[in-house]
Specification:
Layout (H helix, E strand, L loop, with lengths): L1 H19 L1 E5 L1 E3 L4 E3 L6 E8 L3 E9 L10 E6 L5 E7 L5 E2 L2 E11 L5 E6 L6 E3 L4 E3 L3 E8 L12 E2 L5 E2 L1 E8 L1 H21 L1
Antiparallel strand pairs: 1-16, 2-12, 3-11, 4-10, 4-13, 5-9, 5-16, 6-7, 6-10, 8-9, 11-15, 13-14
């Protein structure tokens, strides 16, 4: 019984250490400052994408054009192909900045291949969002498909029901955990313990 408890504990440590001890890669990023715009309306807009492998989303971001703090909070979320909101959060003006985005932690949620997703954010009437992206960098695990937006300026987070704008538009973003060396160092002895126990129990 004691060995079983040790085995369960060791596996738990391995599973916990992997996502926690990680750095983050951005789903999309820019190599140079993009053009910005705001038309005075509060759109729900973003972009459609698929993933090449299972991806754990742990944080969502909203674009900060001057990197000096947002003027208001912004709801951000990811919808699946059934139009269901599967993960969401609210980015606050002073949330941590990584690259061009302010970030908020969300409930860890898996994205899976062969499913088309839409990420969207409420822009607000005064906040700028990025347009005319000539140097977009996309994480190789993510397939950027096209821009998307909700056709009515409702001011609330909605599933984008339209696409095909003449320019790419970026308000929202999400980050992808990348296991750090520390996570691997924790996993090695943990897995060794699992296999050692299996041999003794066998």
């Amino acid at each position: 019984m004691k060995n079983i408890k040790v085995l369960v504990f060791t596996v738990g440590v391995c599973l916990i250490a992997w996502p926690v001890c990680a750095r983050a890669s951005l789903a999309v990023d820019f190599t140079n400052p993009p053009l910005d715009t705001s038309d005075g309306f509060s759109w729900s807009l973003g972009w459609a994408f698929t993933v090449n492998e299972p991806i754990l989303v742990q944080s969502l971001g909203f674009y900060d054009d001057q990197k000096n703090g947002l003027t208001e909070s912004h709801d951000v979320g990811i919808f699946n192909s059934a139009h269901a909101l599967i993960v969401s959060g609210q980015v606050q003006p002073s949330d941590p900045l990584i690259s061009w985005w302010r970030w908020t932690d969300v409930t860890p949620t898996w994205l899976v291949p062969q499913e088309e997703y839409q990420i969207a954010a409420v822009t607000g009437p005064t906040e700028k969002y990025a347009v005319h992206i000539a140097d977009l960098v996309v994480d190789p695990r993510v397939n950027y498909l096209l821009d998307s937006y909700y056709s009515v300026t409702s001011g609330v987070l909605m599933y984008p029901d339209a696409s095909g704008l003449s320019v790419s538009t970026f308000g929202p973003n999400f980050s992808i955990p990348v296991p750090a060396p520390g996570a691997l160092l924790l996993l090695v002895p943990g897995l060794a313990g699992v296999f050692g126990l299996r041999r003794r129990l066998g």
